[in-house]
TrEMBL record:
Residues 4-137 form the Alanine dehydrogenase/pyridine nucleotide transhydrogenase N-terminal domain. It is found in: Cell inner membrane. This is proton-translocating NAD(P)(+) transhydrogenase. It comes from the Eukaryota. The chain holds residues 49 to 422 of 873 of the full protein. In the N-terminal section; belongs to the AlaDH/PNT family. The gene is LOC106815941. Residues 146-310 form the Alanine dehydrogenase/pyridine nucleotide transhydrogenase NAD(H)-binding domain.
């Protein structure tokens, strides 16, 4: 059975679907891995690395004509004619936002799996590319903040004077937020976290950060471990808290999201104007509209002395790491479909198979029935 690894063609996309290490693991299981020449260059994997791992490195036609194509981004229009009729494709898909693409792939009778559709149940954590990418975004968000901040994160007493530690506020303590908290803490900053879900308190504190709270009793728990939209009273109370924090902290990193809704606006223009010159804000929710009123999605700019990082492609800015983790997620998902070797079949009773499947031989399978397992 052949697996194709194309070079991602989306602008500035540096990731590749699998690393050479994963290539070797798939080759050992009996798959023939066809890698497009230069596919790994952005992630610092050379053609020779893939060849040494057992891949056949060649031109794109052969790669897209493989039995199973593994990609990071959903295919662009230019890639559609290259995909094999009745083939299998696994990539990020976001079917709700990409209906036209799903129709085009259906017309080619493709079997399509969305890495973003993998059910978030315990058993499927190993395939959870959304969490892998969120973890990277949280880490890289802090690195970007440090890069644009004019001081140390850690406090120091030196012969040249005493340096106070930076103060970092992280709003939203899901996967990305906890990663940002852990990273900022490990760099020596004073870190504070806030979330609407009660269970996050212990997680924030276990990372050595302070958990901030408001004086309103309201559960933030939605379905499936995600957040629900909060009442206007709660949002007002948390924004009052953030106003006070903005006068004090050097860096604000926001990660608050609610599935299927625009990101809640939590940091107003006035709060940004209240921050000291030289402060940095990183809006990890910017692709969903942003938590910060002054964010420009995808852009880096300075507003009234405050550097705004609105990048929407942070995983691609840490491409070796993200390709390595994504490659582990996607290859383990693929191997779970069969007997763990090259023998590949689809058990439609399997919740992970059924949940992540968007098309089966061109037939629309999304959205799947609600999950049974926790
Ligand atoms: P997310 O990216 O959807 O949201 C980020 C965070 O924003 C959440 O913690 C949410 O509570 C918070 N938030 C929303 N509105 C807010 C507001 N007004 N103010 C402050 N914070 C707000 O979340 P995620 O990181 O994808 O996952 C959230 C949770 O889902 C995880 O912490 C975990 O419990 C669960 N999860 C489970 C699995 C699994 O079992 N496989 C995998 C991933 C996540």
């Amino acid at each position: 059975m052949t697996i194709g690894i194309p070079k991602e063609i989306f602008k500035n996309e540096n990731r590749v679907a699998i690393s050479p290490v994963v290539t070797a693991a798939l080759a050992k299981k009996g798959f023939t891995v066809n890698v497009e020449a230069g596919a790994g260059v952005g992630a610092k994997f050379s053609n020779q690395d893939y060849e040494a791992a057992g891949a056949r490195v060649g031109d794109k036609n052969k790669v897209y004509d493989s039995d199973i194509v593994l990609k990071v981004r959903a295919p662009a229009a230019a890639e559609l004619p290259l995909l094999r009729q009745n083939g299998t494709l696994i990539s990020f898909v976001y079917p709700a936002q990409n209906k036209e693409l799903v129709d085009q792939l259906a017309a080619k009778k493709i079997t399509l799996f969305g890495m973003d559709c993998v059910p978030r149940i315990s058993r499927a954590q190993v395939f959870d590319a959304l969490s892998s990418m969120s973890n990277i975004s949280g880490y890289k968000g802090v690195i970007e903040a440090a890069n644009h901040f004019g001081r140390f994160f850690t406090g120091q007493i030196t012969a040249a004077g005493k340096v106070p530690p930076a103060k970092v506020l992280v709003i939203g303590g899901g996967v990305a937020g906890l990663s940002a908290i852990g990273t900022a803490k490990s760099m020596g900053a004073i870190v504070r976290g806030f979330d609407t879900r009660a269970e996050v308190k212990e997680q924030v504190q276990s990372l050595g950060a302070e958990f901030l709270e408001v004086d309103i009793e309201e559960s933030g728990e939605g379905t499936g471990g995600y957040a629900k939209e909060m009442s206007p009273e709660f949002i007002k109370a948390e924004m009052d808290l953030f106003m006070k924090q903005c006068k004090e902290v050097d860096i604000v990193i926001t990660t608050a999201l609610i599935p299927g809704k625009p990101a809640p606006k939590l940091i107003s223009r006035e709060m940004i104007e209240a921050m000291r010159d030289g402060s940095v804000v990183v809006d990890l929710a910017s692709e969903a509209g942003g938590n910060i009123a002054t964010t420009k999605p995808g852009e880096l700019y300075v507003y009234k002395g405050v550097t705004h990082v609105g990048y929407t492609d942070l995983p691609s800015r840490l491409p070796t790491q993200s390709s390595t983790l994504y490659g582990n997620n996607i290859s383990k998902l693929l191997l779970s479909f069969g007997d763990g070797k090259e023998n590949y079949y689809l058990d439609m009773e399997d919740e992970v198979v059924r949940g992540s499947m968007v098309l089966h031989n061109g037939e629309l399978m999304w959205p799947p029935p609600p999950p049974k397992e926790i």
